[in-house]
Amino acid sequence: MNAIADNLQQVRARIAEYALRHGRDPAGIELLAVSKTKPLEAIRAAWEAGQRAFGENYVQEGVEKARALSDLPVAWHFIGRIQGNKTQAIAAHFDWVHALASEKHARRLDRQRGDRLAPLNVCIQVNTSGEASKGGVEPKAVAPLLSLVEALPRLRLRGLMTIPAPAGDFAAQRQPFHLLRELFEAHRASHPSLDTLSMGMSGDLEAAIAEGATLVRIGTAIFGPRDPSPGPGQ
Question: What predicted TM-score, i.e. pTM, was given to this entire model?
Fold first, then answer.
């Protein structure tokens, strides 16, 4: 598993390079290792190399990993699309949710979180590309959802997230990230807990960092090519 440690070092170096290129402090950008479909030993290898935050797209798989690796101090981030019949498992086993896009799901997560756990950290997903196939709320719908999440006692409002459509050049990649940053800045005064811009993956990493990403999601560059998906609903 030495390859994972080497890969992590290279990814961190890329993040630092891009941050400095755009006048940013690399320390202000957190790396989320996307570990979906990856085996436990790969996650342990990444943890031993200093990685502490891991992202999962499939609820059942993420819950099983959280249980199996309960001996490690890991922050588990759910980054997949939320399904109503999965909110209880998400609320009970994850530390972060990155794709909240409905009032109904917010209320369910709050109700199901339980008093013994710390509040669930929440990022609201914004559809910055206008694609019908993309999850997330429209930019004009961000404000009421921010206010709702902030008012729910078992949720902690942290930020905004987006997964834009692929773009062919650097300027086009920056555009949806710029929109998200503008929304973020526009709402920070009224929602001071906002501190996270979750945006950017391997293919658009530099553009996201240039536009102020504070958390980037990287999988293949750390763990290697994707393994087969466990299937829908997992």
Answer: 0.94
Alpha carbon distance 224, 46 (integer Å)? 12
Cα-flanking dihedrals φ and ψ of residue 37, to 5°? 65, 5
The answer to whether residue 229 scores a pLDDT higher than 90 is no
User: Domain coordinates of the chain in residue numbers?
Assistant: 2-223
> Minimal CA–CA distance to 96: which of 68, 73, 60, 124?
124
Checking 16-24 for CB contacts under 8 A at 24+ apart, the result is: 18/205, 18/206, 18/209, 18/210, 19/209, 21/206, 21/210, 22/206, 22/209, 22/210, 24/209, 24/212
122: left (phi over 0), alpha (psi -120 to 50) or beta: beta
The structural architecture, per CATH, of the domain 2-223 is: Alpha-Beta Barrel (3.20)
80: helix, strand or coil: coil
Tell which residue, 222, 226, 191, 220, has the closest CA to residue 13.
222
Of the pLDDT bands very low, low, confident and very high (cuts 50, 70, 90), residue 130 is confident
Measure the CA–CA gap between 79 and 94, rounded to whole angstroms: 10
